């Protein structure tokens, strides 16, 4: 009975933290990024207590659900099949990547995206084989969160989302825009085949977790503060993608003359 009360109390506390996060987001929003610009040493994580609670919940779900599912996925499907699925799913992202290439003024990368989609959709058998990469057209990632960063829109406070993990308001909004504007999702909804969208999202998440089984295990073993480590790694990864792997971005390398704020005084260094 005592254990039952303890579990109920834990669920109540975690639910309160999540609800608190939602309420705080409504009050804090993007303007918090202005405070970060004025205080260089601020790590811009004003709801860290809430975020840490959500991370605890995510870790429990990962331990008992996501990681075992990813391990089963790896056990059942050989690497060649998993790679083919990964290639096909990445090929479906091409229209979204192209739109963000154009919105960022990266027309050469946009041409590469078109070339990859045409080659892989035909010669690569619906994207299962990444023939374009063998022909010198390497893949790249662009999303609307990156586009807003290039436009100069601040990222806002750091967030730890239930299930989804590290984020910020800019990337959260960007992900929603990319999802709603995705032509394959729009087609699936129009044809009353929403299950395709759910299956695609589920396979993408499953494949991502499978590829990071060992890496995340190592992080959990070695990180002094897992929360701070994940926050830093997330920000470094986003900076790398925003700058196309070329840090730092100066005003000449950005088509909109935007230089991303220096994060060296924060936690993302």
Write up what this structure looks like.
- It is a single chain.
- This protein is 67% helix and 2% strand.
- It is built from 13 helices and two strands.
- A two-stranded antiparallel ribbon has the order 1-2.
- Strand 1 (159-161) and strand 2 (165-167) form a beta hairpin.
- Helix 3 (48-76) packs across helix 11.
- It is globular, with a radius of gyration of 20 Å.
- The termini are far apart.
- The model is unreliable at 1-5, 13-41 and 249-269 (pLDDT under 50).
Q: In short, what is this structure?
A:
The chain is mostly helical. It is built from 13 helices and 2 strands.
Percent of residues in β-strands: under 5%
CA distance, first residue to last residue? 47 Å
Output the strand order for the largest sheet: 1-2
Rg calc: 20 Å
Kindly state the number of beta strands.
2
Q: Pairing-aware structural class of the strands and helices?
A: mainly alpha
The geometry reads as globular
Tally of discrete structural domains: 1
**Element order: H for helix, E for strand:** HHHHHHHHEEHHHHH
Proportion of helical residues: 55-70%
**Would you tell me the overall average pLDDT?**
83
- The number of helical segments is 13
Uncertain runs:
1-5, 13-41, 249-269
């Amino acid at each position: 009975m005592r254990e039952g009360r303890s579990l109920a109390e834990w669920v109540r506390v975690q639910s309160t933290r999540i609800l608190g996060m939602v309420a705080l987001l409504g009050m804090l929003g993007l303007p918090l990024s202005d405070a970060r610009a004025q205080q260089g040493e601020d790590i811009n994580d004003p709801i860290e207590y809430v975020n840490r609670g959500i991370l605890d919940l995510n870790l429990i779900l990962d331990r008992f659900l996501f990681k075992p599912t990813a391990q089963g996925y790896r056990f059942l499907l050989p690497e060649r099949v998993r790679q083919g699925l990964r290639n096909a799913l990445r090929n479906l992202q091409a229209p979204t990547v192209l739109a963000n290439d154009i919105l960022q003024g990266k027309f050469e990368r946009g041409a590469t995206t078109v070339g990859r989609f045409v080659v892989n959709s035909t010669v690569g058998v619906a994207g299962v084989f990444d023939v374009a990469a063998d022909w010198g057209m390497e893949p790249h990632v662009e999303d609307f969160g990156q586009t807003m960063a290039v436009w100069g829109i601040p990222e806002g406070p750091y967030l730890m989302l239930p299930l989804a993990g590290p984020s910020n308001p800019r990337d959260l909004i960007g992900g929603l825009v990319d999802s709603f504007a995705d032509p394959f999702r729009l087609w699936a909804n129009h044809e009353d085949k929403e299950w395709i969208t759910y299956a695609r999202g589920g396979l993408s998440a499953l494949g991502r977790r499978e590829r990071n089984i060992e890496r995340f295990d190592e992080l959990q073993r070695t990180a002094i503060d897992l929360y701070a480590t994940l926050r830093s790694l997330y920000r470094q990864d986003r900076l790398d993608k925003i700058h196309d792997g070329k840090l730092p971005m100066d005003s000449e390398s950005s088509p909109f003359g935007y230089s991303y704020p220096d994060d060296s005084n924060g936690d993302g260094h």
